[in-house]
Structures are given as structure tokens and as C-alpha cells.
Amino acid sequence: LSVRPARRADARAVAELWSTLVREHAALDPVFGLRAGAADDLPAAVTRLLDDPDAGVWVWDEAPGVAGFCAAQRRRAPAATRESQRIEITELVVCPSARRRGIGRALAEAALAWAAERGAPRVEVRVSARNPGGQGFWRSLGFGDFVDVLDRRL
Ligand SMILES: CC(C)(COP(=O)(O)OP(=O)(O)OC[C@H]1O[C@@H](n2cnc3c(N)ncnc32)[C@H](O)[C@@H]1OP(=O)(O)O)[C@@H](O)C(=O)NCCC(=O)NCCS
Description:
The chain is α+β, with helices and mostly antiparallel strands. About 35% of the residues lie in helices and about 25% in strands. It is globular and about 45 Å long.
């Protein structure tokens, strides 16, 4: 497997993959689109994640660059709840030409292993109802319905 933790030198390549993810989501639903100029901030956002002890970022190394990335963050629960923390996988994308080769699964498994190492009892992911590929992917990894986020466009 060619999954490894991301390094600062990967920030630009990861930001490009992140742009791909956002573009694909914006095509599914304009709500996911970025404001003008925001894509330029993505490399710095990647660096902030790399500096965050409560975040993990992994890439799939494939010459000449990286063919996918995954990011996860620890979320602390309110003090009164029985659950003290959970991990949220916040981003996962594989470059379109490298899909259906197991790269997404390998990246998600790296995040799941990281969550288990931290003693998290549960991992969450938010998937658009308009993203059948993402839905099929996460369900194939054993993720199931938890909370339906409903919205109403005004
Ligand atoms: C979702 C995504 C990360 C999957 O990456 P991938 O490397 O192609 O996935 P894998 O090859 O590891 O697939 C593992 C399994 O997931 C399921 N799966 C993957 N893509 C699927 C799709 N488009 N439709 C239905 N099931 C899918 C299959 O069961 C697959 O196993 P199989 O190929 O043996 O049938 C990739 O399609 C992607 O980057 N999509 C755009 C971004 C996105 O939607 N990210 C998720 C946001 S929540």
C-alpha cells in the first residue's frame, strides 16, 4: 500500500485534490461551491491541518504526485454526554483517473486506524444525499445511517 501521512511538501498537491473534490460537489449541489478566490487559501488550510494535533491527513503516493487524500479530525463531545470524542472524516477524494482501484478504501482505512489508536468509539462522515458514489463507497466500508441532516432552501 502506498498510503502515508501527508507532509508539508504535499500541501499544494493536496490542495489541488481538494479543489477537485469541491468542484465535483459543487456540480452536485451549488451549496458546496467556494467563494471566489477561496481555492487560493486551500494550501494554507492543508498546512493548518498538518499542524493540528487533533487532525490527520493521508495521501496515496503515486508517481508523479499524489492520487488521493483523506483528512480526519477529532471532535470533542459536550462534557455531559457519555461519549467524550469521535472522529470525523472530513475530506476524501481520489483523482478521477485512479478510482475503483482500492485507493479510497486504503485512505479511509488509514483514518479508521488512526481513530482506533486514539480510542475513539465512533467515526462519522457527512455524505451528500446527492452523491451516490460517495454513499456507495462509505456503505461498502460498513458506514450506515445515523442522522439525517434536512435543509430548506429559502
Ligand atoms: C468516493 C471515492 C473517494 C472512492 O474512491 P475509490 O478509490 O474509487 O474507491 P475504492 O476503489 O476504494 O472503492 C471501494 C468500494 O467502494 C464502493 N464504491 C466505490 N466507488 C463507488 C461508486 N462510484 N458507486 C458505488 N460504489 C462505489 C465499491 O464497493 C468499491 O469496491 P469495488 O470497486 O470492489 O466494487 C471517489 O469516488 C471520489 O473521490 N469521489 C469524489 C469525491 C467524493 O465523493 N468523496 C466522498 C465525499 S463524502
